[in-house]
Amino acid sequence: MDAESFNSDMNQMKAELNKKIVELERNQKPLLEQNRKLNDRNRLLQQEMKKIEEKLRHAQDDHLTLKDSFERVLKENSSLKEKRAFPEKIEEYDRYRQQVLEYSKCITALRQAAAEKDRRYDLLALRFRRLKKCQSGNGETDEDKQSSFGGSDGSASSVSLDTITEDLEGSVHCKSFESNYQQLVREHRDLQRAFATVKMNNVEVVHWRQKEHVLRDQLKAANARISQLENIIQSEMSTQEKESVFTATIEAQRDQIIALMARSERLD
């Protein structure tokens, strides 16, 4: 009797345990399904995290490259600003401009003076030729005048006083004209030498103008380079902002994965 009662108790206990097991399996089935889904999602998140870490490594490499280029650009930008704001270059540029203006005024004045001298020279040459023609038209030389003055009879009546006065006035006028002519020739030679000097200075002016154009081109190139560097700096700053957002997203996803893993462990 004891054995039978014991067996019946054991069978009853076994049946109750089987019921509990069936009930536990029925209750645990949704949890197992949820755990399976969480494991699948965890696996997908780990794969996504690997991809994000790979992108992060590439982004860090790009960041280092851009950082080096950014520092190099900053140095170049500072050097270009120093060159652009260098006071000696600006003073030299202004000094060249003043020299060009002074040389231009000097050239204009000398050209006007040369034109006036040429006009006076042509006028005096014309008067000199007319005087030569007048003297040659008289048909008398100094010897003819002396012979007519001291003729065979030696009388003073053979020479007219008016003719002597005219000859003296013509001689004085000729000497004055020759003196003016020689002075004008000297002035003309001095003017030619001054004009040659101005031509040499004009060559220097052309050289300074060419140098001025070169300085202008260098200044324009420096301004264009500075604008380009500023654009690069702005793009670098936007890249850094994108990288910070990307890093924050990775950290948030990593925290989410850790929370899911902890929840999965609690379910297990």
TrEMBL record:
Biased composition (Low complexity): 147-158
Keywords of the record: Coiled coil
Stretch list, region Disordered: 136-158
Positions in coiled-coil regions: 7-69, 174-239
Domain of life: Eukaryota
Protein name as annotated: Uncharacterized protein
Lineage: Eukaryota, Metazoa, Ecdysozoa, Nematoda, Chromadorea
